[in-house]
Amino acid sequence: MKVLFILSVVAALVGLAAAIEFDLPATPEAINSRRCLSQWLPKNTHVKVAAKTLPGFPGQKVNMEIHDDSPHLNQYGVRKQMDEVTFRFDTQAHANVIVCFQNVLEPGYPSDGRALTVDLKMESGAMAEDFHRLQQEEKLKPMEIELRRLAMTLDDIQDELQYLKLREGTLRDASENMNGRVKTFSFFSIAVLIGVAVYQVFYLRHFFQQKKLI
């Protein structure tokens, strides 16, 4: 039992999850006012995004969109007039996963500052897995489930460390390339300065010879 508790604590510490609740003011659709939240995630990370709106004044509808900021702008989910929704997906790039909400004020309702409360929960890696379903399907014991959770979490950490290592190598190569360019430019500048100095010496010598000063 003690080992099970330790494994649970470790999995909770290294897992990645974010939960937030905020008010989203209603605005006419033409204004296109959105509120976005983002979280950086490595490629091939399993993600679970759950969102719901709490009851509020009528005349409001919340639209939700999930995408990333990679060059491909991958789309992971869209829901119009959401009430409660859950998305599961695997990231397609090392990028920020961005969740955007828009509270549209329906025609005929006044702009009186009404708003809806949005409850958002975003989990990734091992935290996003449905271990309850996995336990039922494979008939695993609680200890086996915690070991599976810990193994997935460690795999996530290893993948992220590999990406950071790759990123470090890319930045190091870029830095060395920049250093090489700076060194080349420095040598070129020194050569130009020496050339100008030699030219000035010969020019002044020729000038003084013409003036018969030397």
Q: Describe it for me?
A:
By secondary structure, the chain is of the alpha+beta class. It is 42% helix and 33% strand. It contains three helices and eight strands; from the N terminus they run αββββββββαα. It has helices at residues 2-14, 131-138, 142-210, and strands spanning 16-25, 35-41, 46-53, 60-68, 75-82, 84-90, 95-105, 115-124. The chain has a four-stranded antiparallel β-sheet. A hairpin with a 6-residue loop joins strand 4 (60-68) and strand 5 (75-82). The longest helix is centred in the last third of the chain and has 69 residues, at 142-210. The protein is elongated.
Describe the secondary-structure layout.
Elements: H1 2-14, E1 16-25, E2 35-41, E3 46-53, E4 60-68, E5 75-82, E6 84-90, E7 95-105, E8 115-124, H2 131-138, H3 142-210
Antiparallel strand pairs: 1-8, 2-7, 3-6, 3-8, 4-5, 4-7
Helix pairs in contact: 1-3
Average pLDDT: 83
Into which percentage range does the β-strand content fall? 25-35%
Count every beta strand, where a strand is a DSSP E run of 2 or more residues. 8
Gyration radius, in Å: 30 Å
| H and E order | HEEEEEEEEHH
- Portion in helices: 40-55%
Distance between the termini: 101 Å
Biggest sheet character: 4 strands, antiparallel
Poorly predicted residue ranges: 1-15
Number of helices: 3
Shape: elongated
| Strands ordered across the widest β-sheet | 1-8-3-6
Structural class: alpha+beta
Entry summary:
This protein has 214 residues and is an alpha+beta fold.
